[in-house]
Amino acid sequence: MVTLTSGCFRGNKLWLQSVTSGKDWVLCHTSALECLELFAGYMNEKQIDVYAKESGDYENINYRIVNSFDGLGITSFRGMRYTSINQTVNDMLADFDNIDEQSLVEALSTYYYRNGESFDGIEIEPENQDAFDSVSEWAIEYYNEG
């Protein structure tokens, strides 16, 4: 079974809100970046990233199974839960070989330029610092390359 795609809605945030309504999920990775309005998403996007306590029936949802949501930095908006900027960036850096690299780089670039050309406010875990240093260089140049 597949959920609706983002093309059925006026914006990706409305799509994510509709699909996750009433579910015991926390949006994460690229989906969280969309909720944080740091990444615009893709046209007719199908994939949704969630933390969940168990797998579900949807083929287009990337379930990242956790025992508990305790310890996760979570933000809420109109009943929708998603990981905070710090949680999201650190999670994606820790799993860098398996993430949507473009969404992370674009999100960091957006953050950087919205914050007066600074990454101040993002707290990087020590084990993710090398990956962040590498990705942040791409992010600074992201909007200048296209």
Which labels suit this protein?
36% helix; alpha+beta; 146 residues; 5 strands
Written description of the protein model:
- The protein has 146 residues and is of the alpha+beta class.
- It has one domain.
- It is 36% helix and 14% strand.
- It has helices at 12-20, 29-35, 85-94, 101-114, 129-141; strands at 25-27, 48-52, 61-65, 74-77, 80-83.
- The strands form 2 sheets. A 3-stranded mixed beta sheet has the order 1-2-3. A two-stranded antiparallel ribbon has the order 4-5.
- Helix 2 runs antiparallel to helix 3 (85-94).
- The N and C termini lie far apart (37 Å).
- The mean pLDDT is 93.
Per-chain topology:
Layout: H1 12-20, E1 25-27, H2 29-35, E2 48-52, E3 61-65, E4 74-77, E5 80-83, H3 85-94, H4 101-114, H5 129-141
Helix pairs in contact: 2-3, 4-5
